[in-house]
């Protein structure tokens, strides 16, 4: 929670410094609103708003695969003339135009959690996701004793944060472990990730001991994979290293 509080605190302050004087109204737009991760981010935004004496408006798409809904939210806040926008972009390119429109309307934008192409936004606040992915990869190598097989269940295309985690993980394990699969995507919900996980474990013959470890880069893939592994009684046999928690 502390990291989320700091993240949103700095983001809100960066937006406020560039805003017009008077009562500041900061729009905070997450990738989604159902995952536990975003609930902790919301708590951080609320804490920052109280410390800075500003109003925050929290609104985002319900699910993390609803790109149109997130773009609509950004455009709605531009029309409302908020003082600043704090945005976790669902896609590193599709949100460029809405952000550019916000800045043209003299509304500063701070991007957090996941990077955005271009340089229109005022600041970027996030984990070094490549380094974080490397930490996950090093942990997997240690868990498997420096040899063995792994599969990666990716999140979804266009998500810069998870793409960087996946890259960091793969870079860390590529010379030490055998990568059986790294081209499957779990998607934005636990349900979709669970279904993809079942198929992936079956395809890679995990029940026979062919899979030593699994990497998942976000909450939906981690929880969905854990459910699939538990259902197949693989949770005590296969090592799972994942991001986020629920």
Structure description:
The chain has 246 residues and is α/β, with parallel strands linked by helices. Helix content is 46%, strand content 17%. Strands 2-1-3-4-5 form a 5-stranded parallel sheet, sandwiched between helices. It has a 4-stranded parallel sheet with strand order 7-6-8-9, with helices on both faces. The longest helix has 17 residues, at 36-52. The model has no long low-confidence stretch (mean pLDDT 92).
Structural descriptors:
246 residues, alpha/beta, Rossmann fold, 2 domains
Itemize the secondary structure elements and their pairings.
Layout: H1 2-17, E1 25-29, H2 36-52, E2 55-58, H3 67-80, E3 84-87, H4 96-104, E4 109-112, E5 123-125, H5 129-143, E6 149-154, H6 160-173, E7 178-185, H7 190-203, E8 213-216, H8 219-231, E9 239-242
Parallel strand pairs: 1-2, 1-3, 3-4, 4-5, 6-7, 6-8, 8-9
């Amino acid at each position: 929670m502390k990291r989320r509080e700091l993240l949103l605190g700095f983001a809100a302050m960066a937006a406020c410094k560039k805003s017009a004087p008077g009562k500041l109204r900061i729009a905070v737009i997450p990738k989604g609103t159902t995952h536990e991760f975003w609930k902790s981010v919301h708590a951080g935004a609320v804490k920052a708003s109280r410390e800075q004496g500003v109003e925050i408006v929290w609104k985002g798409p319900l699910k993390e695969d609803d790109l149109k809904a997130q773009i609509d939210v950004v455009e709605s806040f531009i029309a409302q003339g908020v003082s600043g926008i704090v945005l976790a972009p669902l896609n590193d390119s599709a949100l460029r135009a809405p952000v550019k429109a916000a800045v043209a309307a003299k509304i500063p934008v701070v991007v957090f959690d996941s990077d955005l192409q271009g340089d229109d936004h005022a600041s970027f606040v996030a984990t070094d996701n490549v380094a974080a992915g490397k930490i996950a990869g090093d942990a997997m190598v240690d868990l498997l004793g420096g040899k063995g097989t792994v599969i990666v269940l990716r999140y979804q295309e266009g998500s810069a944060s998870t793409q960087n985690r996946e890259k960091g993980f793969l870079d860390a394990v590529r010379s030490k472990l055998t990568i059986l699969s790294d081209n499957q995507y779990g998607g934005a919900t636990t349900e979709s990730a669970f279904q993809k996980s079942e198929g992936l474990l079956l395809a890679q013959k995990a029940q026979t001991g062919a899979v030593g470890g699994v990497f998942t880069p976000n909450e939906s893939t981690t929880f969905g994979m854990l459910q699939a592994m538990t259902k197949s009684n693989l949770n005590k046999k296969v090592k799972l290293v994942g991001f986020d928690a629920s």
